[in-house]
Amino acid sequence: MNGNSQQEQPFRWWLPFVTLLKKEILRFFRVSVQTLLTPIITASLYLFVFGATLGNRISVLEGFNYAQFVVPGLILMGVINNSFANVSSSLFMSRYLGNIVDLLVTPITPGQFIFAYTLAAMIRGLLVGFVVSIISLFFATLPWTHLFLAILMACLASFLFAQLGIIAAIYSNTFDALSMYNNFLILPLIYLGGVFYPISILPPLWEGLSRINPLFYLIDGFRHAILGVGDVPLLFSFAWTALISLVLFLWAALLIKKGHRLRS
Amino acid sequence: MTDALHIDALNKAYSGNRVVKDLSFAIEPGEIFGLLGPNGAGKSTTINMIGGVSRIDSGTIRVFGFDNQKEYLTTRRLVGIMHQEIVTDTFFTIDKALRIHPGYYGVRLDKAWMNLLIDRLALEPHLHKPMNKLSGGLKRRLMVAKALIHKPRLLILDEPTAGVDVELRHSLWQFVREINQEGTTVLLTTHYLEEAQQMCGRIAIMNHGSLVALDSTSHLMSQLEERKIILQLSSPLDALPSELSAFHVQRLGGGTRLVLHLPKGCSAGEALRKVCALGLPVAEVETVKASLEDVFLELTGMKGSIE
Is the pLDDT of residue B225 over 60? Predict the structure, then answer.
Protein backbone atom coordinates (compact mmCIF):
# COMPACT_ATOMS: atom_id res chain seq x y z
CA MET A 1 0.00 0.00 0.00
CA ASN A 2 2.58 2.50 1.16
CA GLY A 3 5.54 0.26 0.65
CA ASN A 4 8.05 2.94 1.57
CA SER A 5 8.34 3.58 -2.16
CA GLN A 6 8.24 7.26 -1.26
CA GLN A 7 11.94 7.22 -0.55
CA GLU A 8 12.60 6.35 -4.17
CA GLN A 9 11.08 9.66 -5.24
CA PRO A 10 13.94 12.09 -5.77
CA PHE A 11 13.93 15.27 -3.74
CA ARG A 12 13.44 18.22 -6.03
CA TRP A 13 15.08 21.06 -4.10
CA TRP A 14 13.32 23.76 -6.13
CA LEU A 15 9.84 22.30 -5.73
CA PRO A 16 9.09 23.73 -2.23
CA PHE A 17 9.78 27.21 -3.66
CA VAL A 18 7.62 26.66 -6.75
CA THR A 19 4.83 25.17 -4.61
CA LEU A 20 4.74 28.09 -2.20
CA LEU A 21 4.86 30.56 -5.09
CA LYS A 22 2.04 28.72 -6.86
CA LYS A 23 -0.02 28.59 -3.68
CA GLU A 24 0.47 32.31 -3.09
CA ILE A 25 -0.55 33.17 -6.65
CA LEU A 26 -3.57 30.86 -6.44
CA ARG A 27 -4.49 32.53 -3.18
CA PHE A 28 -4.73 36.03 -4.60
CA PHE A 29 -6.45 34.85 -7.77
CA ARG A 30 -8.98 32.99 -5.64
CA VAL A 31 -10.02 36.27 -4.03
CA SER A 32 -9.38 38.33 -7.15
CA VAL A 33 -12.29 40.71 -6.53
CA GLN A 34 -10.55 41.86 -3.40
CA THR A 35 -6.94 41.54 -4.53
CA LEU A 36 -7.07 42.64 -8.17
CA LEU A 37 -10.40 44.20 -9.13
CA THR A 38 -10.75 46.51 -6.12
CA PRO A 39 -7.30 48.14 -6.46
CA ILE A 40 -7.80 48.50 -10.21
CA ILE A 41 -11.15 50.25 -9.69
CA THR A 42 -9.63 52.49 -7.01
CA ALA A 43 -6.77 53.43 -9.32
CA SER A 44 -9.25 54.01 -12.17
CA LEU A 45 -11.20 56.44 -9.97
CA TYR A 46 -7.99 58.33 -9.26
CA LEU A 47 -7.29 58.37 -12.99
CA PHE A 48 -10.76 59.67 -13.70
CA VAL A 49 -10.59 62.40 -11.04
CA PHE A 50 -7.08 63.58 -11.86
CA GLY A 51 -7.01 62.68 -15.53
CA ALA A 52 -10.42 63.41 -16.98
CA THR A 53 -11.35 66.36 -14.78
CA LEU A 54 -8.13 68.19 -13.97
CA GLY A 55 -5.77 66.57 -16.43
CA ASN A 56 -5.90 69.08 -19.26
CA ARG A 57 -6.71 72.16 -17.17
CA ILE A 58 -3.56 72.45 -15.05
CA SER A 59 0.11 71.77 -15.49
CA VAL A 60 2.68 71.31 -12.75
CA LEU A 61 5.56 70.28 -14.96
CA GLU A 62 6.68 72.15 -18.00
CA GLY A 63 5.78 70.40 -21.23
CA PHE A 64 3.29 67.98 -19.63
CA ASN A 65 -0.31 68.28 -18.58
CA TYR A 66 -1.38 67.19 -15.09
CA ALA A 67 -2.74 63.85 -16.27
CA GLN A 68 0.64 62.95 -17.75
CA PHE A 69 2.31 64.00 -14.50
CA VAL A 70 0.04 62.12 -12.14
CA VAL A 71 -0.43 58.82 -14.03
CA PRO A 72 3.09 57.41 -13.35
CA GLY A 73 2.61 58.08 -9.63
CA LEU A 74 -0.79 56.37 -9.66
CA ILE A 75 0.61 53.33 -11.47
CA LEU A 76 3.42 53.02 -8.95
CA MET A 77 0.99 53.54 -6.08
CA GLY A 78 -0.95 50.49 -7.29
CA VAL A 79 2.27 48.47 -7.53
CA ILE A 80 3.42 49.48 -4.05
CA ASN A 81 0.11 49.02 -2.24
CA ASN A 82 -0.61 45.63 -3.73
CA SER A 83 2.86 44.20 -3.29
CA PHE A 84 2.77 45.18 0.36
CA ALA A 85 -0.81 44.02 0.91
CA ASN A 86 -0.26 40.64 -0.71
CA VAL A 87 2.62 39.44 1.39
CA SER A 88 1.63 41.19 4.61
CA SER A 89 -1.93 39.86 4.67
CA SER A 90 -1.03 36.34 3.52
CA LEU A 91 1.85 35.85 5.96
CA PHE A 92 0.04 37.54 8.82
CA MET A 93 -3.08 35.41 8.28
CA SER A 94 -0.95 32.26 8.23
CA ARG A 95 0.57 33.28 11.56
CA TYR A 96 -2.77 34.37 12.96
CA LEU A 97 -4.64 31.21 11.94
CA GLY A 98 -1.69 28.99 12.81
CA ASN A 99 -1.42 27.30 9.42
CA ILE A 100 2.13 28.63 9.12
CA VAL A 101 3.13 25.35 10.85
CA ASP A 102 2.29 23.58 7.58
CA LEU A 103 5.27 25.42 6.11
CA LEU A 104 7.55 25.38 9.11
CA VAL A 105 7.71 21.57 9.16
CA THR A 106 8.63 21.32 5.48
CA PRO A 107 12.10 21.34 3.90
CA ILE A 108 11.70 24.84 2.52
CA THR A 109 14.78 27.02 3.03
CA PRO A 110 14.56 30.58 4.41
CA GLY A 111 15.68 31.87 0.99
CA GLN A 112 12.93 29.95 -0.80
CA PHE A 113 10.42 31.18 1.77
CA ILE A 114 11.30 34.84 1.23
CA PHE A 115 11.59 34.68 -2.53
CA ALA A 116 8.32 32.79 -2.99
CA TYR A 117 6.38 35.32 -0.92
CA THR A 118 8.26 38.19 -2.59
CA LEU A 119 7.76 36.99 -6.14
CA ALA A 120 4.03 36.38 -5.59
CA ALA A 121 3.70 39.88 -4.14
CA MET A 122 5.62 41.35 -7.08
CA ILE A 123 3.44 39.51 -9.58
CA ARG A 124 0.27 40.88 -7.99
CA GLY A 125 1.70 44.42 -7.68
CA LEU A 126 3.00 44.47 -11.25
CA LEU A 127 -0.22 42.98 -12.57
CA VAL A 128 -2.22 45.78 -10.98
CA GLY A 129 0.32 48.32 -12.26
CA PHE A 130 0.07 46.88 -15.77
CA VAL A 131 -3.74 47.03 -15.86
CA VAL A 132 -3.71 50.58 -14.45
CA SER A 133 -1.21 51.52 -17.19
CA ILE A 134 -3.58 50.16 -19.84
CA ILE A 135 -6.56 52.03 -18.36
CA SER A 136 -4.50 55.23 -18.16
CA LEU A 137 -4.30 55.21 -21.97
CA PHE A 138 -7.84 56.62 -21.92
CA PHE A 139 -6.70 59.63 -19.90
CA ALA A 140 -3.13 60.45 -20.89
CA THR A 141 -0.55 59.70 -23.55
CA LEU A 142 2.80 58.97 -21.97
CA PRO A 143 6.11 59.13 -23.84
CA TRP A 144 7.63 56.07 -22.01
CA THR A 145 11.07 57.58 -22.59
CA HIS A 146 12.98 54.79 -20.81
CA LEU A 147 10.56 51.86 -20.84
CA PHE A 148 13.08 49.34 -19.52
CA LEU A 149 14.08 51.62 -16.63
CA ALA A 150 10.41 52.25 -15.79
CA ILE A 151 9.79 48.47 -15.60
CA LEU A 152 12.96 48.04 -13.55
CA MET A 153 11.86 50.71 -11.08
CA ALA A 154 8.40 49.13 -10.78
CA CYS A 155 10.09 45.79 -10.07
CA LEU A 156 12.37 47.37 -7.48
CA ALA A 157 9.44 49.14 -5.82
CA SER A 158 7.39 45.96 -5.62
CA PHE A 159 10.40 44.03 -4.28
CA LEU A 160 11.01 46.70 -1.64
CA PHE A 161 7.41 46.71 -0.45
CA ALA A 162 7.25 42.94 -0.44
CA GLN A 163 10.13 42.99 2.06
CA LEU A 164 8.33 45.60 4.12
CA GLY A 165 5.23 43.39 3.97
CA ILE A 166 7.17 40.43 5.36
CA ILE A 167 8.58 42.56 8.16
CA ALA A 168 5.14 44.05 9.00
CA ALA A 169 3.50 40.60 8.99
CA ILE A 170 6.10 39.25 11.40
CA TYR A 171 6.06 42.14 13.84
CA SER A 172 2.24 42.56 13.88
CA ASN A 173 0.28 40.57 16.40
CA THR A 174 -3.14 42.02 15.57
CA PHE A 175 -5.03 43.20 12.50
CA ASP A 176 -4.93 46.70 13.95
CA ALA A 177 -1.16 46.64 14.21
CA LEU A 178 -0.91 45.45 10.61
CA SER A 179 -3.25 48.13 9.31
CA MET A 180 -1.16 50.76 11.09
CA TYR A 181 1.74 50.05 8.72
CA ASN A 182 -0.52 50.87 5.82
CA ASN A 183 -2.40 53.80 7.32
CA PHE A 184 0.39 55.50 9.23
CA LEU A 185 3.45 54.63 7.20
CA ILE A 186 2.84 53.73 3.58
CA LEU A 187 -0.10 56.01 2.73
CA PRO A 188 1.45 59.18 4.23
CA LEU A 189 4.79 58.44 2.56
CA ILE A 190 3.06 57.89 -0.79
CA TYR A 191 0.90 61.00 -0.59
CA LEU A 192 3.81 63.16 0.61
CA GLY A 193 6.25 61.53 -1.80
CA GLY A 194 5.24 63.46 -4.88
CA VAL A 195 2.54 61.32 -6.46
CA PHE A 196 0.21 64.28 -6.92
CA TYR A 197 2.68 67.18 -7.19
CA PRO A 198 6.35 67.77 -7.94
CA ILE A 199 8.18 68.58 -4.72
CA SER A 200 9.95 71.42 -6.56
CA ILE A 201 6.77 73.52 -6.24
CA LEU A 202 6.86 73.21 -2.42
CA PRO A 203 8.37 75.83 -0.08
CA PRO A 204 12.07 75.04 0.69
CA LEU A 205 11.34 73.56 4.14
CA TRP A 206 8.74 71.11 2.83
CA GLU A 207 10.82 70.30 -0.20
CA GLY A 208 13.73 69.46 2.09
CA LEU A 209 11.53 67.25 4.25
CA SER A 210 10.14 65.51 1.18
CA ARG A 211 13.65 64.57 0.13
CA ILE A 212 13.99 62.56 3.34
CA ASN A 213 10.98 60.49 2.27
CA PRO A 214 12.42 57.33 0.68
CA LEU A 215 9.31 56.91 -1.46
CA PHE A 216 9.99 60.19 -3.19
CA TYR A 217 12.95 58.58 -5.00
CA LEU A 218 10.86 55.65 -6.16
CA ILE A 219 8.07 57.81 -7.48
CA ASP A 220 10.34 60.42 -9.01
CA GLY A 221 12.57 57.76 -10.56
CA PHE A 222 9.59 55.96 -12.10
CA ARG A 223 8.14 59.20 -13.46
CA HIS A 224 11.55 60.28 -14.68
CA ALA A 225 11.94 57.01 -16.60
CA ILE A 226 8.51 57.54 -18.24
CA LEU A 227 8.49 61.28 -18.88
CA GLY A 228 12.21 61.85 -19.27
CA VAL A 229 12.29 64.59 -16.61
CA GLY A 230 12.42 64.43 -12.83
CA ASP A 231 13.49 66.23 -9.67
CA VAL A 232 16.59 64.06 -9.06
CA PRO A 233 18.95 62.20 -11.42
CA LEU A 234 17.73 58.76 -12.43
CA LEU A 235 20.89 57.05 -11.25
CA PHE A 236 20.48 58.50 -7.79
CA SER A 237 16.84 57.35 -7.59
CA PHE A 238 17.83 53.83 -8.59
CA ALA A 239 20.82 53.68 -6.26
CA TRP A 240 18.77 54.93 -3.31
CA THR A 241 15.87 52.55 -4.01
CA ALA A 242 18.23 49.62 -4.46
CA LEU A 243 19.96 50.43 -1.19
CA ILE A 244 16.69 50.55 0.79
CA SER A 245 15.56 47.36 -0.91
CA LEU A 246 18.76 45.64 0.13
CA VAL A 247 18.51 46.82 3.74
CA LEU A 248 14.88 45.67 4.02
CA PHE A 249 15.69 42.37 2.33
CA LEU A 250 18.50 41.67 4.80
CA TRP A 251 16.19 42.58 7.66
CA ALA A 252 13.43 40.28 6.38
CA ALA A 253 15.95 37.52 5.67
CA LEU A 254 17.30 37.72 9.20
CA LEU A 255 13.79 37.47 10.66
CA ILE A 256 12.91 34.46 8.53
CA LYS A 257 16.23 32.70 9.10
CA LYS A 258 15.93 33.13 12.85
CA GLY A 259 12.25 32.19 12.68
CA HIS A 260 11.45 35.32 14.65
CA ARG A 261 7.86 35.06 15.89
CA LEU A 262 7.41 32.08 13.58
CA ARG A 263 9.21 29.37 15.51
CA SER A 264 8.76 29.38 19.27
CA MET B 1 19.91 -0.52 13.19
CA THR B 2 19.54 3.27 13.14
CA ASP B 3 16.73 4.53 15.33
CA ALA B 4 13.77 6.09 13.57
CA LEU B 5 13.86 8.79 16.24
CA HIS B 6 16.56 9.36 18.78
CA ILE B 7 16.11 12.11 21.33
CA ASP B 8 19.01 12.85 23.62
CA ALA B 9 19.06 15.18 26.66
CA LEU B 10 16.44 17.48 25.16
CA ASN B 11 15.63 20.68 27.00
CA LYS B 12 13.22 23.51 26.34
CA ALA B 13 12.15 26.46 28.43
CA TYR B 14 9.69 29.29 27.82
CA SER B 15 10.41 32.46 29.80
CA GLY B 16 12.51 30.51 32.28
CA ASN B 17 9.85 27.84 32.74
CA ARG B 18 11.33 24.47 31.77
CA VAL B 19 8.70 22.59 29.78
CA VAL B 20 10.95 19.74 28.61
CA LYS B 21 13.66 18.51 30.95
CA ASP B 22 16.55 16.26 29.91
CA LEU B 23 14.27 14.14 27.77
CA SER B 24 15.86 11.09 26.16
CA PHE B 25 14.24 8.21 24.36
CA ALA B 26 14.50 6.35 21.09
CA ILE B 27 12.00 4.80 18.72
CA GLU B 28 12.99 1.87 16.58
CA PRO B 29 11.97 1.68 12.92
CA GLY B 30 8.59 0.02 12.50
CA GLU B 31 7.30 0.75 15.99
CA ILE B 32 4.02 2.29 17.02
CA PHE B 33 5.15 4.33 19.97
CA GLY B 34 2.88 6.20 22.35
CA LEU B 35 3.92 9.42 24.04
CA LEU B 36 1.45 10.05 26.83
CA GLY B 37 1.07 12.55 29.59
CA PRO B 38 -1.38 15.02 31.08
CA ASN B 39 -1.95 18.43 29.53
CA GLY B 40 1.18 20.56 29.83
CA ALA B 41 3.47 17.54 30.20
CA GLY B 42 5.61 18.71 27.26
CA LYS B 43 4.42 16.24 24.59
CA SER B 44 3.43 18.81 21.97
CA THR B 45 6.53 20.90 22.66
CA THR B 46 8.63 17.79 22.06
CA ILE B 47 6.78 17.13 18.80
CA ASN B 48 7.23 20.75 17.78
CA MET B 49 10.96 20.44 18.38
CA ILE B 50 11.09 17.29 16.26
CA GLY B 51 9.35 19.10 13.40
CA GLY B 52 11.32 22.33 13.78
CA VAL B 53 8.34 24.47 14.83
CA SER B 54 10.05 25.06 18.19
CA ARG B 55 13.73 25.71 18.70
CA ILE B 56 15.82 23.34 20.79
CA ASP B 57 17.51 24.88 23.83
CA SER B 58 19.90 21.97 24.28
CA GLY B 59 20.10 18.33 23.34
CA THR B 60 19.76 16.59 20.00
CA ILE B 61 17.06 15.02 17.89
CA ARG B 62 18.05 12.56 15.19
CA VAL B 63 15.61 11.21 12.64
CA PHE B 64 16.85 8.01 10.98
CA GLY B 65 20.34 9.12 11.99
CA PHE B 66 20.05 12.68 10.64
CA ASP B 67 20.36 15.66 12.98
CA ASN B 68 17.14 17.66 12.74
CA GLN B 69 18.96 20.98 13.13
CA LYS B 70 22.00 20.47 10.94
CA GLU B 71 20.30 18.29 8.34
CA TYR B 72 16.78 19.69 8.52
CA LEU B 73 16.22 19.45 4.78
CA THR B 74 16.51 15.68 5.08
CA THR B 75 14.74 15.13 8.40
CA ARG B 76 11.70 17.21 7.45
CA ARG B 77 11.21 15.11 4.33
CA LEU B 78 11.27 11.97 6.45
CA VAL B 79 8.71 13.16 8.97
CA GLY B 80 4.99 13.82 8.59
CA ILE B 81 3.37 15.65 11.48
CA MET B 82 -0.26 16.09 12.35
CA HIS B 83 -0.40 18.80 14.99
CA GLN B 84 -2.84 18.89 17.86
CA GLU B 85 -4.25 22.33 17.03
CA ILE B 86 -6.68 22.33 14.13
CA VAL B 87 -5.15 24.51 11.45
CA THR B 88 -6.35 24.78 7.88
CA ASP B 89 -5.83 27.18 5.02
CA THR B 90 -9.24 28.69 4.44
CA PHE B 91 -8.47 29.56 0.83
CA PHE B 92 -8.47 26.01 -0.44
CA THR B 93 -10.71 22.97 -0.60
CA ILE B 94 -9.53 19.56 0.63
CA ASP B 95 -8.83 18.52 -2.95
CA LYS B 96 -6.69 21.59 -3.67
CA ALA B 97 -4.88 21.42 -0.34
CA LEU B 98 -3.90 17.77 -0.89
CA ARG B 99 -2.74 18.45 -4.45
CA ILE B 100 -0.52 21.33 -3.36
CA HIS B 101 0.93 19.85 -0.18
CA PRO B 102 3.48 17.24 -1.41
CA GLY B 103 5.31 19.95 -3.34
CA TYR B 104 6.38 21.57 -0.06
CA TYR B 105 8.32 18.37 0.62
CA GLY B 106 10.01 18.44 -2.78
CA VAL B 107 8.08 15.48 -4.18
CA ARG B 108 5.44 15.26 -6.86
CA LEU B 109 1.87 14.29 -6.08
CA ASP B 110 1.20 10.56 -6.21
CA LYS B 111 -2.45 10.55 -7.29
CA ALA B 112 -3.03 6.91 -6.40
CA TRP B 113 -1.74 7.55 -2.88
CA MET B 114 -3.86 10.70 -2.60
CA ASN B 115 -6.95 8.76 -3.68
CA LEU B 116 -6.19 6.06 -1.13
CA LEU B 117 -5.90 8.66 1.63
CA ILE B 118 -9.17 10.25 0.53
CA ASP B 119 -10.86 6.86 0.56
CA ARG B 120 -9.47 5.61 3.88
CA LEU B 121 -10.09 8.89 5.67
CA ALA B 122 -13.60 9.19 4.20
CA LEU B 123 -12.92 12.58 2.64
CA GLU B 124 -14.52 11.91 -0.74
CA PRO B 125 -17.92 13.58 -0.11
CA HIS B 126 -16.22 16.73 1.16
CA LEU B 127 -13.43 17.19 -1.39
CA HIS B 128 -14.74 20.37 -2.95
CA LYS B 129 -16.36 22.03 0.05
CA PRO B 130 -14.94 25.31 1.33
CA MET B 131 -12.71 24.74 4.34
CA ASN B 132 -14.87 26.85 6.66
CA LYS B 133 -17.80 24.47 6.04
CA LEU B 134 -15.94 21.46 7.40
CA SER B 135 -16.49 20.09 10.88
CA GLY B 136 -13.65 19.80 13.40
CA GLY B 137 -13.43 16.05 12.88
CA LEU B 138 -13.20 16.48 9.09
CA LYS B 139 -10.47 19.08 9.43
CA ARG B 140 -8.58 16.69 11.66
CA ARG B 141 -8.87 13.92 9.07
CA LEU B 142 -7.60 16.34 6.43
CA MET B 143 -4.63 17.10 8.69
CA VAL B 144 -3.89 13.38 8.94
CA ALA B 145 -4.02 13.16 5.14
CA LYS B 146 -1.68 16.15 4.81
CA ALA B 147 0.77 14.58 7.25
CA LEU B 148 0.82 11.45 5.09
CA ILE B 149 0.61 12.91 1.59
CA HIS B 150 4.41 12.96 1.05
CA LYS B 151 4.69 9.42 2.43
CA PRO B 152 6.86 10.05 5.47
CA ARG B 153 8.94 7.29 7.10
CA LEU B 154 8.09 8.63 10.54
CA LEU B 155 4.50 9.66 11.11
CA ILE B 156 3.75 11.79 14.16
CA LEU B 157 0.12 12.06 15.21
CA ASP B 158 -0.66 14.47 18.03
CA GLU B 159 -4.19 13.70 19.23
CA PRO B 160 -5.44 12.50 15.84
CA THR B 161 -8.81 11.24 17.05
CA ALA B 162 -9.96 14.16 19.19
CA GLY B 163 -13.40 15.16 17.90
CA VAL B 164 -13.55 12.26 15.44
CA ASP B 165 -16.58 10.00 15.78
CA VAL B 166 -16.23 6.43 16.99
CA GLU B 167 -16.60 4.67 13.64
CA LEU B 168 -14.07 6.85 11.87
CA ARG B 169 -11.74 6.66 14.86
CA HIS B 170 -11.75 2.91 14.52
CA SER B 171 -11.07 3.05 10.78
CA LEU B 172 -8.35 5.66 11.29
CA TRP B 173 -6.48 3.43 13.75
CA GLN B 174 -6.92 0.50 11.40
CA PHE B 175 -5.36 2.60 8.64
CA VAL B 176 -2.48 3.64 10.91
CA ARG B 177 -1.83 -0.04 11.68
CA GLU B 178 -1.75 -0.83 7.96
CA ILE B 179 0.66 2.01 7.25
CA ASN B 180 2.81 0.79 10.11
CA GLN B 181 2.82 -2.75 8.76
CA GLU B 182 4.06 -1.33 5.46
CA GLY B 183 7.08 0.10 7.26
CA THR B 184 6.12 3.54 8.54
CA THR B 185 7.15 4.23 12.11
CA VAL B 186 4.44 5.92 14.15
CA LEU B 187 4.69 8.21 17.15
CA LEU B 188 1.34 9.13 18.60
CA THR B 189 -0.17 10.98 21.48
CA THR B 190 -3.73 10.49 22.55
CA HIS B 191 -5.94 11.18 25.50
CA TYR B 192 -7.84 7.97 24.78
CA LEU B 193 -5.62 5.68 26.82
CA GLU B 194 -7.52 2.62 25.75
CA GLU B 195 -6.53 3.39 22.17
CA ALA B 196 -2.90 3.82 23.16
CA GLN B 197 -3.05 0.51 25.01
CA GLN B 198 -4.38 -1.23 21.91
CA MET B 199 -2.16 0.53 19.37
CA CYS B 200 1.25 0.99 20.93
CA GLY B 201 3.97 -1.58 21.41
CA ARG B 202 5.87 0.75 23.69
CA ILE B 203 4.81 3.77 25.65
CA ALA B 204 6.61 6.72 27.19
CA ILE B 205 4.84 8.76 29.84
CA MET B 206 5.83 12.37 30.40
CA ASN B 207 4.92 14.52 33.37
CA HIS B 208 6.04 18.09 34.06
CA GLY B 209 8.47 17.91 31.13
CA SER B 210 10.25 14.75 32.28
CA LEU B 211 10.03 11.14 31.31
CA VAL B 212 8.42 9.16 34.14
CA ALA B 213 8.06 5.81 32.39
CA LEU B 214 9.23 4.11 29.23
CA ASP B 215 8.48 0.47 28.59
CA SER B 216 6.51 -1.98 26.55
CA THR B 217 2.79 -1.47 27.04
CA SER B 218 2.30 -4.93 28.57
CA HIS B 219 5.25 -4.58 30.94
CA LEU B 220 4.16 -1.11 31.95
CA MET B 221 0.77 -2.46 33.00
CA SER B 222 2.17 -5.49 34.75
CA GLN B 223 4.40 -3.20 36.82
CA LEU B 224 1.35 -1.92 38.54
CA GLU B 225 0.26 -5.01 40.35
CA GLU B 226 -2.76 -3.52 41.93
CA ARG B 227 -5.70 -5.64 40.84
CA LYS B 228 -9.19 -5.73 42.18
CA ILE B 229 -11.79 -8.36 42.96
CA ILE B 230 -15.38 -7.30 42.82
CA LEU B 231 -17.79 -9.46 44.84
CA GLN B 232 -21.51 -9.38 44.24
CA LEU B 233 -23.29 -10.54 47.42
CA SER B 234 -26.70 -12.19 47.51
CA SER B 235 -27.58 -10.24 50.67
CA PRO B 236 -26.21 -6.93 51.95
CA LEU B 237 -23.35 -6.86 54.43
CA ASP B 238 -23.90 -4.50 57.35
CA ALA B 239 -20.31 -4.31 58.63
CA LEU B 240 -16.97 -5.25 57.14
CA PRO B 241 -15.14 -8.10 58.88
CA SER B 242 -11.80 -6.93 60.29
CA GLU B 243 -10.08 -9.88 58.53
CA LEU B 244 -10.55 -8.03 55.23
CA SER B 245 -8.93 -4.79 56.35
CA ALA B 246 -5.74 -5.57 54.35
CA PHE B 247 -7.82 -5.33 51.16
CA HIS B 248 -9.01 -1.71 51.68
CA VAL B 249 -12.54 -2.89 50.88
CA GLN B 250 -15.04 -0.49 49.35
CA ARG B 251 -18.73 -1.15 50.09
CA LEU B 252 -21.01 -0.26 47.22
CA GLY B 253 -24.69 -0.76 46.39
CA GLY B 254 -25.83 -0.63 50.03
CA GLY B 255 -23.42 -3.38 51.05
CA THR B 256 -24.27 -5.83 48.21
CA ARG B 257 -21.11 -5.09 46.26
CA LEU B 258 -17.57 -5.25 47.67
CA VAL B 259 -14.41 -4.10 45.91
CA LEU B 260 -11.25 -5.70 47.27
CA HIS B 261 -7.89 -4.16 46.32
CA LEU B 262 -5.28 -6.90 46.19
CA PRO B 263 -1.98 -5.94 47.79
CA LYS B 264 1.32 -6.85 46.11
CA GLY B 265 2.08 -10.55 46.31
CA CYS B 266 -1.49 -11.53 47.11
CA SER B 267 -3.21 -13.68 44.51
CA ALA B 268 -6.92 -13.53 43.74
CA GLY B 269 -7.27 -17.15 44.92
CA GLU B 270 -5.78 -16.32 48.31
CA ALA B 271 -8.17 -13.41 48.74
CA LEU B 272 -11.15 -15.56 47.73
CA ARG B 273 -10.18 -18.27 50.23
CA LYS B 274 -10.28 -15.65 53.01
CA VAL B 275 -13.66 -14.40 51.84
CA CYS B 276 -15.11 -17.94 51.70
CA ALA B 277 -13.72 -18.73 55.15
CA LEU B 278 -15.71 -15.81 56.51
CA GLY B 279 -18.86 -17.32 55.00
CA LEU B 280 -19.87 -14.23 53.02
CA PRO B 281 -22.86 -14.80 50.69
CA VAL B 282 -20.92 -14.41 47.42
CA ALA B 283 -23.12 -14.64 44.31
CA GLU B 284 -20.66 -13.49 41.63
CA VAL B 285 -16.92 -12.77 41.40
CA GLU B 286 -15.22 -10.41 38.95
CA THR B 287 -11.48 -9.70 38.72
CA VAL B 288 -10.23 -6.42 37.27
CA LYS B 289 -6.64 -5.95 36.00
CA ALA B 290 -4.85 -2.63 35.92
CA SER B 291 -5.47 -0.69 32.75
CA LEU B 292 -3.11 1.75 31.10
CA GLU B 293 -5.25 4.45 32.61
CA ASP B 294 -4.41 3.14 36.09
CA VAL B 295 -0.72 3.13 35.24
CA PHE B 296 -0.98 6.61 33.79
CA LEU B 297 -2.78 8.02 36.80
CA GLU B 298 -0.35 6.33 39.17
CA LEU B 299 2.78 7.57 37.40
CA THR B 300 1.58 11.11 36.81
CA GLY B 301 0.41 11.45 40.39
CA MET B 302 -3.14 12.17 39.26
CA LYS B 303 -4.73 9.17 40.89
CA GLY B 304 -5.46 10.81 44.21
CA SER B 305 -6.73 13.98 42.58
CA ILE B 306 -9.26 12.09 40.46
CA GLU B 307 -10.40 9.69 43.13
Answer: no
